[in-house]
Amino acid sequence: MRLALTAGCASLVVLALPVGASAADMARATGPSDTGGPRVYTTTNSPKLFFDSSRKLQFSYRVVHPRPVTAKVSVVKPGSGEVLKRWTETVRNDDVQTVSWNGMVGDKLQAERKYAFRVVARDVNGASTYSASANDTERDSFKLWHQRFPVRGKHQYGDGFGAGRGHQGTDVFANCGNRLEAARGGRVQYAGYHGDAGNYLVIDLKGSRKDFAYMHLLQRPRVQDGDRVRTGQLIGKVGETGNASGCHLHFEIWSRPGWYEGGSATDSEDDLRRWDKYS
Ligand SMILES: [Zn+2]
Fold first, then answer.
1. Model confidence band, residue 19 (pLDDT cutoffs 50, 70, 90)
2. pLDDT in tens, 104-156
3. Less Cβ crowding at N or C end of the chain, within 10 Å?
4. CA 164 to ligand 1 centroid distance, Å
């Protein structure tokens, strides 16, 4: 919120920022437009969508037009134009409209790749404006990622899967106290202490029957059994509790149906290195 006081008189102007984007953040549509078609402005608040993150990916748009307008908003695969999701809205002149997408279509998490928001605004006479041209792969685009790298700050890789005697995870060394964030949201299956694992927790992944385990945390995990955790949420700090030498995260991926539920630990290093690149 910004305040502007005019000296010498009592006028007070309060500008409340809208929840979505402000009109000033938006760019004019670059797609085809009929003569006399609506003016359309759009913006997307992030180039990345981490599945199940608490931070929403939002597409905002504004239509300026003297006549009533129907807006069709969609999520598409840019290039192919394939539509995954659609919203139809009646919009009022100059209002900022916002929609968000969580990466799901029905109950199915969509593939990791680039997507884009599109809007076409059509007035009562059929005059239309498209936010982007059909071959535009950049405008209002974003990448969907299913996971996010869990260690914040500088880090390096140590022992991988199978190192030593039956090492079941990947070690990522970082300073003790660095933030550990959930690589993917879900529900805490177990949070506690074990002589080898130290402070540790296991999360049942949202939208999958796999589990992720995080070990040697500095302190007791920040979450408890049964807690709902979102992707990127702080779950603890890098430590060296239990059978650990040097501050590091020991990270395990368990195949479905999960940790001590019939699954088995699988090699997590390639995944971690991939998440590390884009996170
Ligand atoms: Zn380890």
1. low
2. 999 999 999 999 999 999 999 999 999 999 999 999 999 999 999 999 999 99
3. N
4. 10
* CB neighbours of residue 126 within 10 Å: 8
What type of residue sits at position 17?
L
* Average pLDDT of the chain, as a whole number: 92
Cα 248 to ligand 1 centre (Å): 8
Q: Could you report the per-residue pLDDT of 40-93, keeping only the tens digit for each? A: 999 999 999 999 999 999 999 999 999 999 999 999 999 898 999 999 999 999
CATH architecture of the domain with range 22-145 = Sandwich (2.60)
* Ligand 1 ion: nearby residues, β-carbon < 5 Å: 171, 250
- What residue spans define the domains of the chain? 22-145, 156-278
Residue 54 CA to ligand 1 center (angstroms) comes to: 29
